[in-house]
Amino acid sequence: MHKILTRYCITMWGCMLFAILLLGTGVLAQDSTTAGPVAKKRSYAKNTFEGNYIIDNQTVMVPVKGTFEFDISHRFGIVNNGFTDLFGLFAGANMRLGFSYVPVKDVQIGFGVSNFNMQTDASLKWAVLKQTRDNAIPVSVTYFGNLAMDTRKRNPSLPIVTFSDRFTFFNQLLVARKITEAFSVQAGFSISHFNNVEGYYDKSNTIQSKMKNDHLAVCFSGRYKITPKTSLIANYDQPITQHPLNNPHPNISFGLQMQTSGHTFQVFAGNYSYTLAQDNNLLNQNDYTKGQFCIGFNISRLWNF
């Protein structure tokens, strides 16, 4: 267990250190231009996105200190069967219940449970940089990390031999810009790691891995407000790593977002059918060229303490 957590921490802090080294010089340069006995207070762009999620991806947003959030993520089955299962609504579904809190400014910690593989996960989100209104800092940069554990009882049919086989990891760096009051865009680079992947026997009766343990991917997201409380949202996720077998398919998703002061509701269609980012990035076999879309929704409720 110690080795697993050490590997995760090294990867997590490595991504954050990379962000600081890459962007820190520019930030210090901006700060050094402030002269006089009283420094001008920096004004940040507000509401680049309305919440933590934009369909299947995190956003750069971290709520204010003291915010407690409850999230419900739900993905129905693919729509291809038509009325047989009411376009996937009565097919098998994946769901996650998530809880998060902001104990200090710009840092959010979270916990969740999912029905897929009975996973339990923990997450960390850190707003490294925030876009300013005067464009001294032109973009917002956020790190997101997640650790998940398969909690199913071990049996001969499961690919779990050692305790470490239960763990998967996700690290992502997000960069976003609020272009206008209505339009925001975001891009992200992620690394997913599975301690154990599915295997098969080759012709020589030797076990080979169908997939690599590490997977790289990029994502692009956008939001356009059509009314003060309603937005059009879209995602595109592109895998980079090529695997021996079962290469994951890209994801295209689009939907509608509605929010109040304490709630955010998103309904959408996309190729991803899981609720954790590492599962979607490595395991997605839904092909949008074949119309294999899933209907899904996210619900978020916030409380401030």
Description:
The chain is mainly β and 305 residues long. The protein has one domain: monomeric porin ompg (Porin, Beta Barrel), CATH 2.40.160.40. The protein has helices at residues 2-32, 277-283; strands at residues 53-54, 57-58, 67-78, 94-104, 107-114, 119-129, 140-150, 167-178, 183-194, 199-201, 207-209, 214-227, 230-239, 251-259, 263-270, 294-304. The strands form 3 sheets. A 12-stranded antiparallel beta barrel has the order 3-4-5-6-7-8-9-12-13-14-15-16. Strands 1-2 form a two-stranded antiparallel sheet. β4 (94-104) and β5 form a beta hairpin. The longest helix is centred in the N-terminal third of the chain and has 31 residues, at 2-32.
Comma- or semicolon-separated keywords:
two-stranded antiparallel ribbon; mainly beta; twelve-stranded antiparallel beta barrel; globular; 305 residues
